[in-house]
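Ticket #4471: structure output looks truncated?

Reporter: J.K.
Steps to reproduce: submitted the chain below (199 residues) through the standard prediction queue, then opened the result file.
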Amino acid sequence: MANEDSRNMTDPLHRFTAWLAEASAVEPNDPNAMTLATATPEGRPSARMVLLKGADAQGFVFYTNLESRKSLELAANPVAALLFHWKSLRRQVRIEGAVEPVSAAEADAYFATRPALSRLGAWASDQSRPLPSRAVLEARLAAMKSRFGEENIPRPPHWSGWRLVPELFEFWQDMPFRLHERLVFTRGAGGWEIGQVYP
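Returned output as attached by the reporter:
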């Protein structure tokens, strides 16, 4: 930690941004990939990989089908956990917090940046629900292409984003002999409280 600037010691978002930049330089695929863990109101958990699409002082943003399992669980129990694991750097970051929907303007702006087939796929896919065959999905995709073409494809009403507002960060750094470093930031009334936990 000696070579990291002082903001990394007090600002978890700054530290995360620095680590993500390092991962982006060495990870072969999707350094912004993260495990998203959700749970039903009864406490039954589920987890899957999603892609981080924005991280700033407001929180961590990802996009998805609002009728998917993850979205239904977030709507019913709006807390979640994220996990970034960068194997090549031997680092991971855990983030926990409450979750809220992004604005329609944010979702529209991001949706417009997606490739045409991805935008059409958002219309064609009933995410998380049973699919009789791959041919059914391909036929639905063709129907959406016929309906919209490949320009000015609107965002489906069932597709948007979520923002996790961090309440806890844990930065894990591999160390020799499994004496790992674990630095924890917890949001308090006066700002971030910083501590360490045993490996």
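Triage note (M.O.): checked the attachment and the full token line is present. The chain has a mean pLDDT of 95.
Status: closed, working as intended.
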